[in-house]
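S1.2 Input.
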Amino acid sequence: MKAGICLLLIALCGCGTVATQPPPDTTFIPVASYFPDTRTVVTGREVNLRQGPGTVYGIVGCVHAGDSLVVLGETGDWYRVYFPERSLFAWIFAGLTSGAELP
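S1.3 Output.
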């Protein structure tokens, strides 16, 4: 009986920790309104696109060397990008790209 109650409490309350996403290190700076066609080219062989500006965020896709992305903004060393071929909005580490000249 006690084991059943314990299992019920665990099921109702959940177990483990809930992952939270830390805020970005710096303020997001939108650039699309100033530079509507600012693009960057992926230089890494295979680069993950993420939900947020950091490796703690989930992966939403992958791009390859030579892929072109529209830069919508930046925060720290990360670009907020749009990948037109997949209609995907995501974040990419700026060090794995080239060609974007942001203000």
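S1.4 Remarks. The beta strands are 29-30, 39-42, 46-50, 59-64, 68-75, 78-83, 88-93, 97-98.
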